[in-house]
Amino acid sequence: MSMRIGVVGLGRIGQLHARNVVLEAPDAELVLIGRSVDRLDATRKSLTVSLSAESEVEAEPKISMRTLSDAWADGLDGVIISTSTGTHPDLTRYAVEHGVPCLVEKPLSLDLAEIPQLSEQLESHGVPIMVAFHRRYDEGHQRLRQRIRSGSMGPIRLIHAVNHDHRHVDPDYIPHSGGIWRDLLIHDFDTIPWLLDDRPVSVYATGGVLDAEVYSDCDDFDTASAVITFASGSQALVSGGRNVASGQDVATSVYGSDAAFSAGVDDHTPVEPLESGTAPSVTTYEDFMDRFAATFRGEIRHFLAMVRGETDSLTPPSAGIVAARLAMAAEESARTGRPTRIEW
After folding, report:
1. Whether 104 and 178 share a structural domain
2. Peptide bond into 155 cis (omega under 30)
3. Which of 89, 172, 209, 244 has the fewest CB atoms within 10 Å distance of its CB?
4. Is residue 27 pLDDT above 80, yes or no?
5. Are 160 and 15 members of one domain?
6. What is the mean pLDDT of residues 168-177?
7. Closest Cα to residue 131, out of 70, 187, 55, 75?
8. CA dist., res. 202 & res. 343, Å (int)
């Protein structure tokens, strides 16, 4: 079935999603949606040139444009919303009110306290929605979840999640990012409860600014960690950092009484072993798009299958409620210097 898939917001992640739509569905029409016709046209030309060079794309991709001032959802089979977070609620509402399945970047709203009510409102339309917690579509994390669910690991005791950005965030982005808890570590706050199928009951969080005062100016951190306690008694240690110059490092290790497994510890891991007979990784990941290149493509593959009615969303809006609660609790803990209880 030939589809018409829109992309609203054409920054780095929006353009990546646009490319992956064409790579996964070469017969689809890609509709670029934005405010500036000049920027839309420049992006269209750039994508056409780069995609035409891909061996997987046998014909020139079908790419059209429309502005947000138009009835932008008309005739779309699906839409990807990758604009700034503050616009997510209104754009997602508009899409589902017009019956258009969505993939919307996380978080669903900058106001995390709004997410439960917003999720209920959006899901009441019965239109499929994926919130872009991409690790649920990552092969390694899916396998890790299967191992945990199989019971073969025994009781799960400890989880260690590493989420270290290779570079500092663009200074212009920091004031609008929501901060390290909502922008970076919210992925771990989503992934770990999903892996364990367990409810967090408390979090103790701390953070600091080591080498870029622009974070302090925005009440943000460039280095942070959190200890999460779950209802089962399992504990998770989450560490997040910007400008970890050895390379992008995102991994989740789970330790059970009978076995331990990880997702993301591979021959690109940017930690150099010092024991005799060991060797450092030859190459490391440059950034999160490099680290999760296959995952982002798999996410779009799942989205297109959802649009065709072949599968369900793994990340409906309500799936983000736990991550939102954890992010808010971490913010409170870091502010007060005390553990924060989470009541359900």
Report:
1. no
2. no
3. 172
4. yes
5. no
6. 90
7. 187
8. 9
- What b-and-e string marks burial along 67-78, b requiring 16 or more CB atoms within 10 Å of the CB? eeeeebbeebbb
User: Per-residue pLDDT for 85 more than 90?
Assistant: no
For residues 67 and 33, give the distance between their C-alpha atoms in angstroms, rounded to a whole number.
5
Mean pLDDT, residues 80-94: 94
pLDDT digits (tens, 9 = 90+) for 198-211: 999 999 999 999 99
In sequence order, the β-bridge partners of residue 207 are 224
Domain of 80 in residue numbering reads as 4-134+296-316
Q: Indicate whether 61 pLDDT > 90.
A: no
The full DSSP string for 151-194 is TTT-SEEEEEEEEE-SSPPPTTTHHHH--HHHHTTHHHHHHHHH
Question: Do 174 and 286 share a domain, yes or no?
Answer: yes
Longest dimension (CA), the chain: 64
Count of domains for the chain = 2
Give Cα 42 distance to the centre of its chain: 26
Residue 164: strand, helix, or coil: strand
Q: What is the pTM of this model?
A: 0.93
